[in-house]
Design goal:
Layout: E1 13-14, H1 17-28, E2 40-43, E3 51-58, E4 63-69, E5 82-85, E6 96-98, H2 106-112, H3 125-136, E7 137-139, E8 150-151, H4 154-157, H5 159-173, H6 177-193, H7 228-239, H8 255-271, H9 276-287, H10 299-312, H11 315-329, E9 346-353, E10 358-362, E11 365-369, E12 372-378, E13 384-390, H12 396-407, H13 411-416, E14 432-435, H14 443-452, E15 456-458, H15 469-482, H16 495-504, H17 512-529, H18 538-542, H19 549-558, H20 570-577, E16 581-586, E17 589-592, E18 595-598, H21 600-610, E19 620-626, E20 629-636, E21 642-647, H22 649-652, H23 660-678, H24 690-701, E22 711-712, H25 715-737, H26 753-770
Parallel strand pairs: 1-7, 9-14, 10-22, 14-15
Antiparallel strand pairs: 2-3, 2-6, 3-4, 4-5, 7-8, 9-12, 10-11, 12-13, 16-17, 16-19, 17-18, 18-21, 19-20, 20-21
Helix pairs in contact: 3-5, 3-6, 5-6, 8-9, 8-10, 8-11, 15-17, 20-25, 24-25
């Protein structure tokens, strides 16, 4: 009966003349009670429980051979038709009730009508039909044509003929009769149960459940082998004296259990966001508290059905919400370049945590710290246009400078750091800025960078993570490019990456200038050699443009016309990216952050304004702070002329800071002293804490370090010192861009000579500890 059995020698037996004569007599005889072969009927005396299928009628002895069947079960085991004698106890015609076919599954009739049925039903069907034909049929012609086979009623009527047919099958297949007989009887029983025909022996997979079909409410006992608890209960019952303990099997899951599971999953798992195990505990507490252990669904049973219920009722969508479902579960077919439309130059601004150790002096020692880099990546071509080393982390100022870097050339800085190849360090014009909802994208920065620069502001669409992938892809590439450095590492989680990361953690960190050199080198390599073939249009291909990001960017910039192609000067960039703030001029003085600023030009401006008739009103002017210099301000007159304001000598003497943050600290200490004088606190309230004192000392020392002054009493202070140095460099460019007189140089601030000497000694010690000479290069 298996596919491995050789059935080549198996065929129905050849019918003799007496067999043909007997068969014709059976077929021509009228059946009692209007029955026919394989017809279904019931007897009124049996009620509505029993159903029978007519198999054979032997009129010579007035016996009807029937097979009891049940529409609610499938054939199990093997039994032969039973004989009813209609001679001694004849049935009245009114006691027989003909019923329509209800035993045979629908897919068996669909197969006869050439309709599609599950493939699993047909597995081994031809072999089983051949075996049953050889057992139950006769071939009158010997040609082996199945349409001419005749039903051999003697196999049903005569036990000896049935035994001979079974012996014929076993000998043809080379099987042991004692072993194979039971299989043949089961096959015959199934054939008669479903009313014969080519489809009666189809597999019953769809009725037994099948793919996606539940057996809940159908199983009378739990399917599968005994569980651990059931096995233990059976052993206890077996070895108990007098078998006084009954072994109880676990109850199968019913329809009521499924309803309880569904309601609990919706309430506790989907709505209240509980875990599955917590939901199961709630089910036990609320619905099965007083039940016997073998009647309570086990945790494994609950898990098996919970996954199906969650999928059926879409509970995962309810649990996660529409936003998370659309963002992480639903299909996302968009691309990062969709927002550009093939023509709009969008700058994607994002932060990148460099996987490389940078040197900082903390408490007299060189310690490694992490550095964040803000990248500006073109979505139209894929090139890195702007960057900014955010020493103190992502904030509004680093975001602004990254956008400005996209407009400014980077070759000069690269040459200062010792790079020769700068073909991939590009700059150009953009149309819009794509920002994520991070720390750098504050409202004030967006207003300055977008409104004043006539740039469009593009925010991430809701639940569209497929449109945000430009920065993330660049971050991964930068990690790999920097991994070859002595202190560089990757974020891989495999054992080898972890081992390399632990090994490189012992290497000395690199100075900040070396890090910037490596960063520019990586950007140059990325722009020149990254494959961006999906961003190259067919017009670019026809024009001979390569697939590298730099080639595509140069082509797209060459297509810009009018104001979109105009190159902005440094003065225009500084003017647009740093906001002008309104302040009132009082007697020639401008108050900014509690300090007073003035200049000869401001004094003359106020005097001219005071000549007007009537009361003298304080005019309003626009001022702008200079990065890195807390003692200088830029101010703009009504005619557009820009000049420099200087902090008054009196206020300047109250400060020792070199940054605007240091000025805040000075005001803070002055506020504490004011509290002491007024007696509003106890005698210790005016003392400056050690941490605040370290901040003041670090602020006083933080000037002019070629290594970006990455040093301080703590890692936080080292970051601030480095930021002050970079602010001074930006401030120098801001003042020079406004064509201010040479005597207003802010690259070096006014400090005492002893402080300068202290700073030179400090720098010399840092170089010696890093093993560098005075120019920042290896000796």
């Amino acid at each position: 009966m298996q596919n491995t059995i050789d059935l080549t020698a198996l065929r129905p037996r050849l019918a003799t003349a007496s067999d043909i004569l007997f068969t014709r007599e059976i077929e021509t005889t009228e059946w009692p009670y209007d029955l026919r072969r394989f017809a279904l009927f019931k007897r009124k005396m049996d009620g509505k429980v029993m159903t029978f299928r007519a198999i054979s009628w032997y009129s010579a002895i007035s016996k009807l051979y029937v097979l009891p069947v049940d529409a609610n079960t499938s054939p199990s085991g093997g039994s032969f038709p039973i004989a009813w004698s209609c001679k001694n106890k004849p049935l009245l015609a009114g006691e027989i009730e003909h019923i329509p076919e209800c035993i045979r599954p629908k897919f068996m009739d669909e197969y006869l009508k050439k309709k599609t049925v599950p493939v699993s039903c047909l597995k081994g069907l031809n072999d089983r039909n051949l075996i049953i034909d050889s057992l139950l049929m006769l071939d009158p012609t010997g040609e082996g044509i199945s349409a001419k086979f005749i039903f051999n009623d003697m196999v049903i009527i005569n036990p000896y003929c049935r035994s001979a047919a079974i012996d014929y099958i076993c000998s043809s297949l080379g099987k042991d009769r004692n072993i194979y007989r039971s299989s043949l009887v089961k096959l015959l029983h199934k054939y008669l149960w479903f009313g014969g025909g080519p489809s009666a022996l189809m597999n019953l997979g769809p009725r037994q459940g099948g793919p996606g079909i539940s057996r809940v409410g159908v199983n009378k006992q739990k399917p599968g082998p005994l569980s651990g608890l059931e096995t233990m209960a059976l052993e206890i019952a077996t070895f108990s004296e007098g078998n006084s303990v009954a072994a109880k099997r676990q109850r199968p899951i019913g329809l009521r259990d499924i309803d309880i599971f569904a309601a609990a999953l919706y309430l506790h798992w989907a709505t209240e966001k509980l875990s599955l195990i917590e939901t199961y505990r709630e089910i036990l507490k609320n619905h099965y508290r007083k039940w016997s252990s073998h009647l309570i669904p086990t945790e494994t049973m609950f898990y098996n059905h919970a996954s199906q219920i969650i999928e059926r009722d879409e509970l995962k969508r309810i649990r996660n919400g529409e936003e998370l479902t659309a963002q992480y579960d639903n299909a996302r077919i968009g691309q990062a370049g969709d927002l550009t439309g093939g023509v709009i130059e969008i700058l994607d601004v994002d932060g990148f945590s460099a996987k490389i150790r940078v040197a900082a002096r903390v408490g007299g020692k060189i310690v490694p710290i992490s550095i964040v880099v803000i990248f500006g990546v073109s979505r139209l071509s894929g090139v890195v246009l702007g960057y900014e080393i955010a020493v103190t982390g992502e904030n509004a100022e680093s975001f602004r400078r990254c956008i400005a870097s996209a407009y400014t050339p980077k070759s000069d800085r690269a040459f200062q750091l010792g790079l020769d190849d700068t073909k991939g360090l590009l700059h150009g014009n953009i149309d819009a800025i794509f920002v994520d909802n991070g720390a750098g994208a504050s409202e004030s920065v967006i207003k300055i960078a977008c409104d004043q620069m006539s740039l469009k502001r593009i925010l991430p669409p809701p639940a569209r993570g497929d449109l945000k992938g430009v920065g993330e892809g660049l971050n991964c590439i930068m990690v790999r490019l920097m991994a070859n450095e002595k202190s560089g590492y990757t974020r891989g989680k495999d054992p080898l990456s972890k081992k390399i990361r632990r090994k490189k953690s012992k290497n000395p960190p690199i100075p900040l200038d070396d890090f910037e050199r490596l960063l520019l080198k990586s950007i140059n390599f990325y722009n020149l050699y990254t494959n961006k073939r999906r961003l190259r249009t067919w017009q670019m291909r026809n024009a001979g443009v390569g697939i590298a990001a730099a080639s595509i960017f140069k082509y797209t910039q060459a297509q810009r016309r009018g104001d979109a192609a105009r190159v902005l000067s440094v003065a225009e960039l500084q003017d647009r990216f740093i906001p002008w703030l309104p302040r009132t001029c009082q007697k020639g003085l401008i108050t900014f952050m509690k300090d007073r600023f003035t200049s000869t030009a401001m004094e003359g401006f106020f005097n001219e304004h005071a000549k007007a008739n009537g009361d003298v009103e304080n005019p309003e002017v626009l001022v702008k702070r200079v990065s890195g210099s807390p003692y200088k301000l830029l101010w703009k007159r009504e005619d557009g002329v820009v000049d420099v304001l200087t902090m008054t000598d009196e206020d300047k003497r109250t400060h020792s800071a070199t940054s605007w943050k240091g000025v805040d600290i000075d005001h803070f200490t002055q506020h504490i002293e004011d509290i002491v004088l007024k007696g509003k606190k106890n005698r210790n309230s005016g003392k400056v804490a050690v941490k605040d004192h370290d901040k003041l000392v670090a602020a006083e020392r933080g000037r002019g370090n070629p290594l970006a002054l990455l040093a301080g009493s703590s890692i936080k202070e080292a970051r601030k010192n480095a930021k002050r140095f970079r602010d001074q460099e930006h401030g120098k460019l801001e003042v020079e861009a406004q064509n201010v007189r040479n005597d207003t140089n802010v690259s070096r601030l006014e400090v005492h000579s002893d402080s300068c000497e202290m700073e030179r000694l400090f720098e010399r010690g840092l170089y010696a500890e890093l093993g560098l000479d005075g120019q920042g290069a290896q000796p």
